Amino acid sequence: MIITTDRLRLRPMEPKDIADFVRDLNDWEVQQWLSIPPFPYGHKDGEAYLRIVQGNHASGHPTAFVVADGNTDSALGVMAVDLDGNGQGALGYWIGRQHWGWGIAREAGAALLDHASRHPALRRLVAVTDPDNLRSQRVLRALGFRDRGLSDRPSPSRRGSTQLRSYTFPLARH
User: Fold this and answer.
1) What is the mean pLDDT of residues 126-136?
2) Looking at the whole model, is its pTM more than 0.85?
3) CB–CB of 35/158 below 8 Å?
């Protein structure tokens, strides 16, 4: 499955994306805000993620998409909505630092949220950020997420934060 916007393609991960992932996910300015990808991030980590994403897409249940340039098809980052078994989806994303400030996360996020909101099992959509990640908070607010305040983290972040800022998205059924 591929989701297109004016400038972007949200598509399954391909082997050619691994080098971009290794470069971007070894940048502390990107990784300091993330909780799942290992740091440092190696080629084997990219291969493992490729298998997971390709498996999800092949099964008809894609959750993670590479955010790719619509003209060059080069990987700019990743955006995902992970569904749990109770109808809750969690939005997560990262964009390579060299692509910050171009509105890519907002454009990709709007397209993915439109797609995800059509999923019949999705009842609630949430996102969390580090309290100091002001860029991500601006993106979430621009996408229509509502700030639900701070809560305690189960374990400290990579930056040492013991709290999370939580957001919910008002789902409109199509």
Assistant:
1) 96
2) yes
3) yes
